[in-house]
Amino acid sequence: MSILVNKDTKVIVQGFTGKEGSFHAEQCLDYGTKIVGGVTPNKGGQTHLGQPVFNTVDEAVKTTGATVSMIFVPPAFVGDAVMEAAEAGIELAVIITEGAPVKDMQMAKAYATKHGMMTIGPNCPGIITAEECKIGIMPGMIFKKGNVGLISKSGTLTYEGANQVCNEGFGITTAVGIGGDPIIGLSYKQILPMFEADPDTECIVMIGEIGGDLEIQAAKLIKEQITKPVVAFIAGQTAPKGKTMGHAGAIVSGSAGTAKEKMEALEAAGVTVVVSPAEIGAAVTKAMAKK
Amino acid sequence: MNIHEYQAKQIFKKYGVPTPKGIMVESVKDAVAAAEQLGGPIWVVKAQIHAGGRGLGGGVKLAKTLEEVESLADEILGMTLVTHQTGPEGKLVQKLYIEDGADIKSEYYLSVVLDRKLEMPLIMASTEGGMNIEDVAENTPEKIVTVPVDPSIGFQGFHGRELAFGLGLTDKAEQSNMIKLASKLFKLYMENDAEMIEINPLIKTGKGEFMALDGKMGFDNSALGRHPEIAEMRDLTEEDPDEVEAAKYGLSYVALDGEIGCMVNGAGLAMGTMDTINHMGGTPANFLDVGGSANAETVAKGFEIILKNPKVKAIFVNIFGGIVRCDRIANGIIEATKITDVNVPVIVRLDGTNAPEAAEILKNANIANLIVGDDLGDGAAKAVAAAKGN
User: Fold this and answer.
1) Which of A194, B348, B373, B380 is in the most buried spot, having the most CB atoms within 10 Å?
2) Nearest-CA distance B285 → chain A (Å)
3) Which one of B113, B269, B278, B280 would you mutate to disrupt binding with A, by most A Cβ within 10 Å of its Cβ?
4) Do B45 and B9 fall into the same domain?
5) CA nearest to A160 within chain B
6) Given a cut of 90, is residue B53 above it in pLDDT?
7) pLDDT at residue A242, rounded to an integer
8) Residue A131: inside a domain, yes or no?
9) Looking at A150-159, B13-22, B49-58, B255-264, which range is the least confident one?
């Protein structure tokens, strides 16, 4: 078992024939992901990476029965692409593109929600169900199959966390990179209950960072609904106030959104909070032994 | 991206948001000429820097004669202004805004920001104008009115009424003035992909009209491509020169005041690396994200920027290759040692895509000062030890 995606998930790629889209779609195909086609306007009818290309998402969905779209279009077109996917009946859009305007994401996310479409990202590594389905840009080889669910705002910390978990002899059910932009799709609040309901997930690793209050909302939810052990790390304990650290959303303004505040809230909810990402693996081992 | 007050007021003017008349100048002579042109009888001489709290720091002063304009311009131009937002090092004042004095009956606060929880813009207003809004939020939160505006319906009459009644305005003309002003501000916010617009203080004149006495605006960097006229307002002298230089090479750099230079891929891992160093008793000298397309040139540039800081006693390169291939980083490190004089220990931890090839490359290069870290914890520990001279 896993969450959201598995070996049977049918995926299309928006921005399929572009440089980034092609490179990563090929890697996903190699991993075993069922990519059943792609969308690039004016290239409909062509074949790319052995899969059909369509002019519109609507046509791609009707022909292939895809339920998930991986989005690689340039930043200025992300909003449009997400809304097109929602309109066409896609169930989950995974938005990899970095640098989408925040205003576009506000509109697109509101529209997706109205159509019952879930989104992941933007500016994220994507989602992977170990050894079944990779939808994104993560290095597939580090995700061994196992019983730990992972959710992270940061791409490279996702890899760091997964690598440590696997080096300790465990593995991953599903890892979700939710992205660190000010407006993101699925977050801790939606994904934690999915891991709670997944019979194969025995422990959850949650990686957050400064800015916003998603981790605080997560702490509240963990206290109320999550019975499985959770290990958490919050990046940015040493970040100076008011500076954007790479991710547009990671800005500490006033007292809201500091690492300290988030770590305390998670600890109070019974989460094992580590002070350095180097300690994630050991903390997972401890949590798994206690079960 | 932030802009100056005088630039914000140009945009206000375009949207019909009333402001006092003013002229931006860069010399004392022009300051006097501007004051003459404005006519008086009173003027405000205002330092133009990208930081709040200018008044308290002595960067905004009232002049009643042209002689006073001259002496104040002379005093403020070229001063290093320290406010609660500049940090202790302050900011050099290179521009002034000479503005007409205004008839102030009362002061308000008005802003539009993104509410991340609601995922839509939020109009915030208060009767406590001229104060630090964070303090108002902390001490008297009941004095702040917040009105979220769903962009799909835009600014409606009810939004305006919530604001006007929330601010306790009873005069119908004043209510109408406030509603019109908020509507214009929201339009400005949406049309220009603003991140934040703040007017503090927004004044009410003796005639019951509202006027923006100050203006602060920030814009979404990701959307600047479709607003070239705003992108042109960028003032590079207001930004850290090292950060600007780094950005040219796709590097995201922020200077800190510790001793261990960091070069990492990904913002999250970069912050996590700083945290790990700190936890092990060391101090990070910087945040540096080399991004997804790092190559030999960018890595070499990263070394150069880090080494400009004389406090740096060791460098920790921490890469978990996903899209970034470790062998490219390894070659970059070798290039860097050829171009730049790397005179401090460099601790390198390379994991992920092509890590074994990278290890081989570094081993064969035989670089003095290079120490290999096995994982994040090991690398950070070695960097902390190296910075302490062990």
Assistant:
1) B380
2) 11
3) B269
4) no
5) B320
6) no
7) 59
8) no
9) B49-58
Q: State the pLDDT at residue A152.
A: 97
Note whether A245 contacts B287, CB cutoff 8 Å.
Answer: yes
The per-residue pLDDT for range B278-328, each reduced to its tens digit, is 999 999 999 999 987 777 788 888 999 999 999 999 999 999 987 778 888
Say what the pLDDT of residue B51 is.
84
Q: Provide the chain B residues 102-141 that lie in CB contact (below 8 A) with chain A.
A: 114, 116-117, 119-121, 134, 137
CB within 8 Å of chain A, chain B residues 28-67? none
B274 touching chain A per CB within 8 A: yes
* Partners of residue A182 in chain B, C-beta under 8 Å: 114, 116
User: Does A109 lie at the interface with B, CB-CB under 8 angstroms?
Assistant: yes
Q: CATH number of the domain that B97 lies in?
A: 3.30.1490.20
Asked if residue A150 and residue A116 are part of one domain, the reply reads no
Shortest Cα distance, chain A CAs vs residue B70, angstroms = 35
Contacts A–B by Cβ distance under 8 A: 164
> What ipTM did this prediction achieve?
0.90
Average pLDDT of every residue of chain B:
92
**Domain end marker among A90, A120, A150:** A120
Q: Which domain holds residue B88?
A: 21-101
**A108-134 confidence digits (pLDDT tens):** 999 999 999 999 999 999 999 999 999
Of B117, B195, B225, the CB nearest to A76: B225
Query: Looking at the structure, do residues A239 and A99 belong to the same domain, yes or no?
Result: no
* Nearest CB to A154 within list B137, B267, B284: B267
Cβ neighbours of residue B28 closer than 8 Å, sequence gap 6 or more: B70, B73, B74, B77
Contact between B352 and A247 using a beta-carbon 8 Å cutoff: no
Q: Which residues constitute the domain of residue A86?
A: 10-120
Last residue of a domain, one of B101, B126, B160: B101
**A157, B268: Cβ pair inside 8 Å?**
yes
Same domain? For B363 and B280 the reply is yes
Residue A106 and residue B322: Cβ atoms within 8 Å? no
Tell me if B220 and A163 make a contact (CB, 8 A cut-off): no
Are residue A144 and residue A286 in the same domain, yes or no? yes
CATH number of the structural domain spanning residue A156 = 3.40.50.261
Q: How much is the pLDDT for A290?
A: 79
Q: What is the mean pLDDT of chain A?
A: 93
Hey, which residues of A are catalytic here? Answer: 247
CB < 8 Å to A76, chain B: 225-226
For residues B120-147, average pLDDT: 88
- Residue-level pLDDT at A251: 44
